[in-house]
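Hi again,

Forgot to attach this to my earlier email, sorry! This is the prediction with iron/sulfur cluster bound. I've pasted everything inline since the attachment limit keeps bouncing my files.
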Amino acid sequence: MEQQKCYENYPAWIVVISNLISFSTYFIGGFIVYQIGSLWLALYILYILILELKLLGGHCVNCYYYGKICAFGKGRLSSLFFKKGESSKFCKNKMTWKDIVPDFLVSVIPIIVGIISLIIHFNWLILFFMVLLFILGFSGSAIVRSQLACKFCKQRKLGCPAEKLFEKTKK
Ligand code: SF4
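Structure tokens for the complex follow:
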């Protein structure tokens, strides 16, 4: 892993695959949450938007890829809406699993909603989407992170608290 080359700007195919996994997760999660009402779907979408804005405005601004194309295209996106931060701040805080909980909730909330829906009224389609969400939300994003994103990331070499946390749990 250490000899891997790093991308200055990630190729489009990585950005497409990474976002495909993220957006599929959001879409499937939204579909499951919609089963209990459009108001809950609106709250779920709002929750995702808050997480994305927090990432773009709070983390991407300090990342090496600010203004460039990272594995998710967010470095470029962040530079369109937010001012550049300080790269030293990117690695300042240690990250724990507690910090990742809000991201996990994007998949966990619809799975809980799906379980409740299935108890009330069993539906094979909902069950299928729950399994798909579980695979995409956990294994899918882990594969994207390790094989496409972190693997070629310059910020990883400069220091990344998230990557350190993921690496630590692999040992
Ligand atoms: S090392 Fe991974 S988690 Fe950290 S900035 Fe790069 S892609 Fe993101």
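Residues 28 and 149 are 23 Å apart (CA to CA). The chain has eight helices and no strands.

That should be everything now.

G.
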